[in-house]
């Protein structure tokens, strides 16, 4: 939500909540500062100084690793000034968590530089066979050698993928191999064929990612046919999901085609395929407000499988980013849906994660950025595509969700003179203000104070009370509730006195004369 705004008020105002974060949650929270300060390179080291590794005494590995990851996010794709610092920190790091953050940060800062010294350092860490550091090293190797199609690099990565027993390292290498083949089109076919025939499902999944990267934005029919075939034929659910997701990367230049391609897959019996179709719609139709795509996603928000709901919520936010009620009336309904899922205490955690991410995506960058996989001139945005691919890997490893910030691009008009200086000028827009209106802020529900209600008095009761007051009688006092035994009161007069009084009354009473009837 605050990507690139430098506004970290939420973290400052909620330090107690932030202090409760432990382990990888602390790592991710620290790395989020890199998303907030994205692009602000001059003050980066000063801002992150309290989170970076220090020579004096050991610090928290999770905080330091998150700090190095944050530096990479700040300098993503243009980190010449910070690359050597990150490389030195990575060489000195002994903690696997610091190495993990250092690898991700270095990969981001040195993206597509093809520097051999950085690649060798990352390969050295990979060969340590440490699962945590190895996963990040695999991704970072792909980032550094992005689009190089280097045969030696691919041979190293594939050979080690066959040797290692760690699934985490395999996952990192699967993404890294795909990144090396970025934008190579038919040149990558031989490598993709070899990976697609591998008996290891993780390497077959790497082939699907490789198709997505090699043919990104091309709309290639042969690639689409191949992905559709794998989506319905492979025995592994993860491979099928990756194949369907890859369709979104190939078709993002022609987003109107994607709903027709994945419409049948969105109704598949396999929940992994349904999830993949939701993400494909989100990737290809990002920022378009495509009504057909939203109509396919709406029933998936009520899917019986929670991770399918998660994918549908995230995809809907990707499509609706920077859409207003004037341009797309469904925005209001989806906002209410996100709020309902997040606030429902009984809803599943996976669906809640999807709704929280969706809310952040919908209001990304203070509502001043959009998801841009292409530039304004129609060329593929390399950093945006790479960020989106790694973002989809949050399925396995949630700290990778921060890579989405690479896909966000500000929507603004920048005027320049011939000397590349910004002139002072005013621009008049003919559009209605409602076209660009911000949605109203959420209001917290205020608890109403309960007023004391006066008890109703019936008219009969009121009359009875007035009568008692007039006669001087007080209303009967309720008996005290005590545990003592009730005792009858003694009679005021004795029984003998009563008998005498009765005899006197009988004697004084006159005798009646009875008449005889004849």
Could you please describe the fold and organization of this structure?
The chain has a domain of 111 residues. The protein contains 25 helices and 2 strands. It is elongated, with a radius of gyration of 38 Å. The chain has 518 residues and is an all-alpha fold.
Brief sketch in words of this structure:
With 518 residues, this protein is mainly alpha-helical.
Task: Draw up the topology in text.
Blueprint: H1 9-13, H2 15-19, H3 23-36, H4 44-47, H5 61-74, H6 83-92, H7 96-109, H8 116-126, H9 131-144, H10 151-163, H11 167-180, H12 189-196, H13 201-214, H14 221-233, H15 237-250, H16 258-262, H17 271-284, H18 291-300, H19 306-320, H20 330-343, H21 349-362, H22 364-367, E1 369-371, H23 382-391, E2 408-410, H24 459-471, H25 495-508
Antiparallel strand pairs: 1-2
Helix pairs in contact: 3-5, 5-7, 6-7, 7-9, 8-9, 9-11, 10-11, 11-13, 12-13, 13-15, 14-15, 15-17, 17-18, 17-19, 18-19, 19-21, 20-21
**Global mean pLDDT:** 84
End-to-end separation in angstroms reads: 121 Å
Helix and strand succession?
HHHHHHHHHHHHHHHHHHHHHHEHEHH
**Judging from the principal axes of the Cα atoms, what is the shape?**
elongated
Q: What Rg do the Cα atoms give?
A: 38 Å
Portion of residues within helices: 40-55%
Low-confidence stretches: 479-483
> Tally the helices: what do you get?
25
**SS-based structural class?**
mainly alpha
Can you summarize the main beta sheet?
2 strands, antiparallel
Going across the biggest sheet, name each strand in turn. 1-2
Q: List how many beta strands DSSP finds.
A: 2
Beta-strand share of residues: under 5%
């Amino acid at each position: 939500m605050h990507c690139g705004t430098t506004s970290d008020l939420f973290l400052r105002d909620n330090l107690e909540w932030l202090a409760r974060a432990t382990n990888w949650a602390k790592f991710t929270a620290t790395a989020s500062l890199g998303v907030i300060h994205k692009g602000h390179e001059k003050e980066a080291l000063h801002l992150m100084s309290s989170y970076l590794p220090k020579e004096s005494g050991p610090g928290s590995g999770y905080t330091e690793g998150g700090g190095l990851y944050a530096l990479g996010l700040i300098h993503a794709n243009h980190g010449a000034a910070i690359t050597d610092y990150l490389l030195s920190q990575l060489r000195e790091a002994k903690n696997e968590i610091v190495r993990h953050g250092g690898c991700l940060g270095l990969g981001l800062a040195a993206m597509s530089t093809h520097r051999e010294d950085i690649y060798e350092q990352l390969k050295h860490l990979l060969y340590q066979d440490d699962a945590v550091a190895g996963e990040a090293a695999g991704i970072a190797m792909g980032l550094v050698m992005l689009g190089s199609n280097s045969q030696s690099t691919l041979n190293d990565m594939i050979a080690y993928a066959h040797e290692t027993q760690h699934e985490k390292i395999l996952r990192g290498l699967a993404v890294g191999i795909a990144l090396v083949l970025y934008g190579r089109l038919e040149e990558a076919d031989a490598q993709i064929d070899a990976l697609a025939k591998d008996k290891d499902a993780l390497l077959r999944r790497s082939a699907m990612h490789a198709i997505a990267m090699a043919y990104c934005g091309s709309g290639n029919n042969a690639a689409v046919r191949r992905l559709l075939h794998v989506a319905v034929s492979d025995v592994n659910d993860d491979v099928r999901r990756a194949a369907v997701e890859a369709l979104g990367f190939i078709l993002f230049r022609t987003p109107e085609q994607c709903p027709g391609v994945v419409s049948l897959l969105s109704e598949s019996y396999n929940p992994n395929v349904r999830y993949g179709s939701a993400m494909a719609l989100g990737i290809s139709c990002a920022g378009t407000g495509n009504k057909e795509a939203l109509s396919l996603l709406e029933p998936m928000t009520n899917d019986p499988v929670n991770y399918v709901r998660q994918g549908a919520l995230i995809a809907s936010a990707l499509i609706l980013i920077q859409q207003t009620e004037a341009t797309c009336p469904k925005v209001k309904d989806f906002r209410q849906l996100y709020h309902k899922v997040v606030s429902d205490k009984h809803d599943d955690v996976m669906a809640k994660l999807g709704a929280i991410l969706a809310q952040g995506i919908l209001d990304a960058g203070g509502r001043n950025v959009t998801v841009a996989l292409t530039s304004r001139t129609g060329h593929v945005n390399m950093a945006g595509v790479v960020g989106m691919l790694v973002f989809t890997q949050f399925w396995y490893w949630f700290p990778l969700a921060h890579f989405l910030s690479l896909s966000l691009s500000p929507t603004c008009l920048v005027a320049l003179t011939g000397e590349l200086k910004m002139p002072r000028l005013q621009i008049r827009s003919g559009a209605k203000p409602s076209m660009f209106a911000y949605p109203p802020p959420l209001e917290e529900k205020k608890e109403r104070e309960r007023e004391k209600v006066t008890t109703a008095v019936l008219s009969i009761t009121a009359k009875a009370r007035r009568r008692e007051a007039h006669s001087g009688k007080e209303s009967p006092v309720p008996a005290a509730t005590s545990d003592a035994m009730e005792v009858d009161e003694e009679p005021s007069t004795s029984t003998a006195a009563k008998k005498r009084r009765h005899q006197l009354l009988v004697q004084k009473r006159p005798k009646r004369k009875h008449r005889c009837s004849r």
